[in-house]
């Protein structure tokens, strides 16, 4: 009664209705059916039953008046109605419950001011009406009572998550009640519908703690799934979508909980929803009538169910599937639930949704593919029917789904044999192959055979795809072994070439089958055989098999049906060239037949595939021996014609025949051209020393050879002398000869031939002669043909900026166009360099073009060979040029720019770098002989060394040379730079390859002596050599004994010393006792240099603990130490990095009274530094005695609190701030642990009430729960000291901040981590200090967090449960 009266008092103070609502009330005043004031009076009279009934009718019937708002505004409440129910036993609870559900829903929708009173009323109901609720949902209740009860419970769930959780605790939903509530009755708005709304409210309106309690009730949430078969489409989609969005895709719900919720029975019921019957399905089923379902609604249902099952069965993140590392070959089934799903689907390949689901399941769980293949196998027995075709189509889709991306997670863990077994089982299962291939290899019809070989083709493609993808992860030997396994498997179980092709002409053509389609698939199979099992193609080379007959057959079909079969012909030619190349020689009729066909197709498509076949065909002719790089030029020249001219192709065939017949004579003539040339140069002797590599080097050697002419150019010359050439052929020949000229590494022979060719344009002849003889830059002009891009490029490259061409779409016109333009650019650069005419402008244009190629990702090995493999370019560059404007020096910058661009883009050019590295090494040898001569090249040499990188042997020999003659390199910066690079590179290479040996004793000793000599010249910066010496000696510490002892003294005597010098001195002092003695003898001098003293002090104190020496050091350094303690913001970097020695000095030498005096007040500092916190910790340890009073303990704690808050206030936005705050927190935690025993029985209320301390607690919780557990740890240590002096309200405030943190639930319910452990430990510490903090409401969250494992988190949870 007190609660009811209190509620009424609160209701009287509630807000009045807005004026607009009053206006509406006034307008409808005449039609009012209910008066809230009169109703409240009637509640206290005998007519209360009728009044409640009238109120409910008014609420249900009125659409113009909001009687609920009026009732609440007049002071009414839910508790008032409950009081009426308690006072008048004649009122059915169902009426009051239904009225309460309306009121709660209205409050939840638009009346937040009444939520508090409504919440309390609901709590009152759960505490006092639990028995009534339980009775109203059991067998003894009526249907209206169940509906009213469920409506009220649903409204309560929607109002508050806490209420939702309490409902599950107080109300008894046992199996009998659930069965009653989920039963189909056939009526609209049934009890089942109300129960479904009740359960879905948990999914949509509540937070995870309540949902977790719901999921803990086994089978409760999924009890409605079985009957969804006969629910409306809206209801089904609501339930399934809610379970998908709020259970499956809820990151807080664990996979274990999902598997417990969606068990085998539930999942089978959900899969059966693909066959949804609808609300009328149950009656029709009982009466054995045909079930008519709205197809639009069924499509909607199927889509909703399908989306749910895709997440459940195929998502590793949200679903209930697991990765099987053995992909089904192991003994344990990792996906038993998915196995049940697959078994429950009857012939899924006949249904679109089921088919897609099975395919996606196999893609996500490839270990289940074996099951699907076993289920599918009986339906793959060859028979020409729709069902068989459907099964075959599904088999091909399954193979495409089982690609290498679904198995990547485990491939690296398996051996080669296991890999083969898995790949074979996934994409080419032997039982399936034996099923589709008859034992006699005789098929009922070509159409059946066509479908079978189409399936075999998919298998072969997948096998090839797996082999390619595994090539990067397997070693060469393992990959070869795997390829051998695949080869053997295919050769034993697949059809050979002849068996595939025989009988393809016997069947009648249908819309599903044609001979052309058959041949397309057959030759695709042959292409796969070439890579996987070439032995199966051997039968095609027998004398009984005529390729020309098939080609003729295809040609006849093409003409008869007027269809394009050129692609098929290209495939056929590509295959058969490899088996009997003698049939494709220039003098054969087959050659004359296929070449025009290929050229015509290439002219129309400009396809890379056709270019490859043409290249193979012309290469087979034998006239391009050792000159295969020319072939594509002769092919691509056809694309320069403005329209296709078959006569030009016939001329090409004739030229090839002439060349083939006169090849030896033409070779001799080419040799005579070279011999007669006065400008011919052979670089073999010049390059021999450069190209020879050390025998110890294992890298592949690249030899930069010249590119020679093929005899085809002489064939063209002879052909033109015997026959008058056409205009089209002139255009063709001009294109070919221009690109041949650009590609040549030496042009003399070709220019002589060009001068003899009357059919070439005069402008081109002038262009060729000018570049051979002239001393001026001439661009290409009057270019004839369709591809004017060459003329534009030539002009822009030589005279323009090349900016416009970089964005031109004309580069995509033909294959190899970019390579041809690259040849032109290199041709210009090399010839200008050779004539000493190369300018920075040309070099910049070449860099732009190379960068453009890299940006297009057009660079491949051929491009790199053209860029870096030019022998004339190598010969003409120099690494020892003085003048910036010299052509050779400009050429050096050109090659450096190209290499730098390629390296930055990630291309591998090491084999070419070796060639240039030889030349660089020769330059270094010259420098070391006369260093003073090349001193001005120091910066250039450093850049060259960083770019080209010397090998281990080069570095070793260079260092050896320097060590032998070190005395003459006293003031040579260039030698110092070479030494620094060589020693650093050698150290790095030795770290990478343990086979490389360190320097010998003499080299190390002499280099250290050289270092001492350099140190005497104070103007030389020795930072770099100190760094590389330090790195080398740390890598090979055994060489420390070979270092000259005077080096340590020299390092300490450097006036402008650097941190690198000191680091080396520290290492030397660590390893040599004599240096300790020197340090002690010269302590007065060293103390004057704080930057040197502090790093060496820690090393010295590790080996010398004589108090007298320590006192001497302390006296010398005391003033600096005190200044650093009082003003840490002014301390130098040496204090930050080398504070450990100072800590020892404080512990050993600082007077105890000074330490005690330090804590007489709270210390506040401008900055927080880690070194400073360590010094304060040392001062605390020195002053920590049993007599320490509460004031000093307070001062110690608050000093560290201020230090920590100083960093917190900066927001921890940078890694530096985070690292600093963590370090200080660890120091503070250590201080707290040591202070704990001293603080026993001390009154620390002053500390616990300090507002700064409360702010510190807030910061620790804020940043600690986010991700930094160390703050929680230090807070827990602090509370362990202060709890006896803290009041309960202070502890509760900390607990509320902990529980209200936005990441608290996610942390506690998430995986075990350091943060979770510290959160639970802090929670335990608070509850242990104040047991009343442990409330019943905390238990569900803690239960959800408990994992029943033997780990620290679960042990703490068990201790909390016991409380």
From TrEMBL:
An annotated GO BP: maturation of 5.8S rRNA from tricistronic rRNA transcript (SSU-rRNA, 5.8S rRNA, LSU-rRNA)
CC annotations in GO: nucleolus
Pfam family for this entry, one: Npa1
Name this polypeptide is given: URB1 N-terminal domain-containing protein
Domain URB1 N-terminal: 95-390
Superkingdom, taxonomy of origin: Eukaryota
Positions of region (Disordered): 1-28
Basic and acidic residues: compositionally biased ranges: 1-12
Origin species: Phaedon cochleariae (Mustard beetle)
């Amino acid at each position: 009664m007190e609660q009811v009266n209190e509620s009424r008092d609160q209701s009287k103070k509630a807000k009045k209705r807005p004026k607009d609502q009053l206006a509406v009330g006034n307008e409808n005043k005449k039609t009012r059916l209910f008066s809230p004031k009169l109703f409240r009076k009637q509640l206290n009279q005998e007519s209360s039953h009728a009044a409640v009934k009238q109120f409910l009718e008014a609420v249900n019937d009125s659409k113009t008046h909001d009687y609920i708002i009026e009732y609440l505004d007049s002071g009414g409440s839910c508790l008032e109605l409950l009081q009426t129910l308690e006072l008048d036993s004649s009122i059915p609870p169902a009426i009051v419950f239904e009225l309460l559900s309306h009121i709660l829903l209205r409050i939840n929708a638009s009346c937040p001011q009444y939520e508090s009173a409504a919440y309390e009323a609901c709590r009152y109901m759960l505490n006092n009406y639990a028995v009534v609720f339980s009775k109203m949902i059991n067998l003894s209740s009526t249907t209206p009572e169940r509906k009213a009860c469920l409506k009220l419970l649903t409204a309560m769930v929607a109002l508050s998550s806490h209420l939702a959780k309490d409902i599950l605790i107080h109300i008894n939903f046992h199996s009998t009640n659930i069965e009653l509530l989920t039963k189909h009755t056939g009526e609209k708005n049934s009890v089942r519908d109300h129960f479904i709304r009740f359960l879905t409210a948990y999914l949509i309106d509540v937070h995870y703690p309540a949902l977790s309690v719901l999921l803990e009730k086994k089978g409760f949430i999924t009890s409605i799934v079985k009957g969804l078969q006969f629910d409306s489409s809206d209801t089904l989609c609501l339930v399934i979508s809610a379970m998908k969005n709020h259970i499956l895709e809820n990151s807080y719900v664990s996979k274990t909980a999902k598997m417990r919720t969606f068990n085998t029975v539930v999942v089978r019921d959900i899969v059966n929803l693909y066959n949804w019957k609808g609300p009328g399905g149950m009656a029709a089923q009982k009466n054995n009538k045909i079930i008519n379902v709205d197809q639009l609604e069924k499509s909607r249902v199927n889509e909703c169910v399908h989306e749910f099952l895709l997440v459940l069965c195929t998502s590793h993140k949200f679903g209930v599937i697991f990765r099987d590392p053995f992909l089904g070959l192991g003994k344990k089934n990792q996906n038993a639930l998915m196995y049940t799903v697959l078994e429950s689907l009857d012939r899924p390949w006949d249904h679109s949704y089921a088919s897609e689901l099975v395919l996606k399941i196999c893609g996500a769980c490839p270990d289940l593919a074996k099951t699907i293949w076993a289920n599918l196998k009986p339906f793959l027995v060859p028979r020409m029917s729709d069902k068989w075709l459907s099964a075959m189509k599904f088999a091909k889709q399954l193979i495409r789904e089982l690609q290498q991306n679904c198995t990547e997670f485990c491939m690296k863990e398996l051996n080669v044999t296991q890999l083969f077994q898995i790949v074979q089982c996934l994409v080419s299962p032997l039982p399936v192959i034996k099923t589709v291939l008859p034992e006699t290899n005789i098929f009922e019809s070509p159409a059946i055979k066509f479908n079978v070989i189409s399936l075999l083709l998919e298998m072969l493609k997948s096998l090839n795809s797996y082999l390619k993808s595994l090539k990067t992860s397997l070693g060469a030997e393992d990959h070869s072994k795997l390829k051998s396994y695949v080869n053997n498997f295919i050769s034993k179980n697949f059809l050979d070439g002849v068996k595939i092709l025989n009988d393809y002409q016997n069947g009648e053509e249908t819309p599903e089958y044609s001979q052309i389609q058959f041949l397309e698939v057959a030759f695709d199979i042959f292409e796969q055989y070439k890579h996987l099992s070439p032995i199966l193609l051997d039968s095609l080379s027998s004398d009984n098999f005529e390729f020309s007959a098939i080609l003729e057959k295809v040609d006849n079909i093409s003409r008869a049906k007027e269809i394009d079969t050129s692609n098929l012909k290209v495939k056929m030619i590509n295959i058969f060239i490899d088996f009997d190349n003698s049939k494709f020689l220039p003098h054969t009729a087959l050659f004359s037949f296929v070449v025009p066909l290929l050229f015509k197709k290439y002219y129309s498509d400009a396809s890379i595939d056709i270019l490859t076949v043409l290249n193979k065909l012309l290469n087979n002719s034998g006239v391009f021996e050792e000159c295969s790089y020319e072939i594509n030029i002769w092919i691509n020249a056809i694309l320069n014609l403005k329209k296709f001219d078959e006569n030009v192709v016939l001329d090409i065939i004739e030229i090839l025949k002439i060349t083939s017949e006169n090849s030896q004579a033409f070779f001799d003539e080419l040799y005579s051209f070279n011999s007669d040339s006065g400008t011919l140069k052979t670089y073999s002797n010049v390059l021999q020393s450069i190209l020879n590599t050390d025998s110890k080097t294992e890298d592949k050697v690249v030899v930069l050879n010249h590119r020679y002419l093929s005899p085809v150019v002489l064939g063209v010359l002879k052909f033109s002398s015997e026959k008058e050439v056409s205009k089209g052929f002139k255009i063709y020949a001009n294109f070919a000869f221009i690109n041949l000229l650009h590609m040549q590494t030496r042009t003399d022979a070709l220019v002589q031939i060009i001068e003899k060719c009357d059919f070439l344009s005069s402008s081109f002849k002038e262009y060729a002669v000018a570049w051979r003889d002239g001393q001026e830059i001439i661009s290409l002009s009057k270019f004839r043909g369709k591809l004017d891009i060459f003329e534009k490029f030539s002009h822009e490259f030589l005279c323009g900026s090349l900016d416009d061409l970089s964005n031109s779409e004309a580069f995509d016109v033909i294959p190899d166009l970019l390579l041809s333009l690259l040849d032109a650019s290199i041709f210009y650069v090399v010839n200008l360099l050779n004539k000493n005419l190369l300018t920075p402008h040309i070099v910049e244009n070449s860099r732009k073009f190379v960068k453009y190629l890299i940006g297009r990702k057009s660079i491949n090995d051929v491009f790199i060979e053209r860029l870096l493999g030019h022998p004339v370019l190598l010969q003409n560059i120099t690494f020892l040029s003085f003048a910036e404007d010299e052509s050779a020096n400009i050429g050096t910058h050109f090659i450096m720019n190209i290499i730098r661009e390629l390296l930055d883009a990630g291309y591998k050019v090491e084999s070419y770098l070796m060639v240039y590295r030889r030349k660089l090494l020769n330059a270094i040898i010259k420098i070391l002989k006369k260093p003073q001569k090349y001193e001005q090249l120091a910066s250039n040499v450093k850049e060259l060394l960083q770019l080209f990188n010397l090998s281990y042997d080069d570095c070793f020999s260079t260092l050896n040379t320097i060590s032998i003659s070190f005395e003459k390199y006293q003031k040579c910066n260039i030698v110092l730079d070479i030494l620094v690079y060589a020693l650093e590179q050698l150290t790095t290479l030795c770290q990478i390859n343990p086979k490389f040996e360190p320097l010998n004793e003499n080299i190390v000793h002499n280099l250290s002596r050289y270092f001492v000599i350099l140190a005497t010249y104070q103007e030389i910066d020795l930072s770099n050599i100190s760094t590389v010496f330090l790195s080398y000696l740390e890598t090979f510490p055994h060489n420390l004994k070979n270092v000259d002892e005077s080096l340590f003294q020299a390092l300490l005597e450097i006036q402008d010393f650097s941190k690198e010098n000191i680091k080396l001195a520290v290492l030397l002092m660590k390893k040599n006792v004599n240096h300790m003695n020197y340090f002690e003898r010269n302590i007065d001098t060293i103390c004057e240099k704080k930057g040197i003293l502090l790093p060496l002090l820690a090393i010295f104190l590790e080996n010398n603990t004589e108090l007298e020496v320590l006192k001497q050091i302390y006296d010398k350094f005391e003033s600096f130490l005190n200044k650093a303690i009082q003003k840490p913001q002014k301390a130098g970097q040496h204090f930050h990095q080398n504070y450990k020695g100072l800590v020892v000095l404080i512990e050993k030498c600082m007077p105890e009274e000074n330490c005690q005096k330090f804590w007489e007040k709270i210390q506040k500092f401008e900055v927080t530094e880690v070194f400073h916190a360590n010094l304060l910790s040392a001062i605390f340890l020195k002053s920590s005695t049993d007599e320490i009073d509460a004031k000093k303990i307070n001062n110690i704690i608050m000093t560290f609190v201020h230090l920590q808050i100083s960093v917190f206030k900066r927001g921890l936005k940078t890694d530096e701030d985070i690292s600093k705050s963590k370090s200080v927190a660890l120091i503070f935690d250590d201080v707290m642990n040591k202070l704990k025993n001293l603080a026993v029985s001390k009154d620390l209320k002053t500390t616990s009430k300090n507002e700064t301390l409360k702010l510190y607690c807030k910061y620790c919780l804020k940043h600690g729960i986010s991700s930094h557990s160390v703050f929680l740890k230090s807070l827990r240590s602090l509370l362990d000291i202060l709890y006896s002096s803290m009041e309960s309200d202070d502890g509760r405030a900390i607990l509320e901040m902990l529980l209200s943190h936005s990441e608290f639930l996610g942390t506690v319910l998430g995986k075990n981590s350091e943060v979770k452990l510290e959160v639970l430990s802090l929670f335990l510490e608070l509850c242990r200090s104040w047991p009343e903090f442990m409330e019943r409401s905390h238990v569900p969250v803690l239960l959800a967090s408990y994992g029943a494992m033997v780990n620290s988190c679960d042990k703490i949870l068990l201790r909390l449960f016991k409380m």
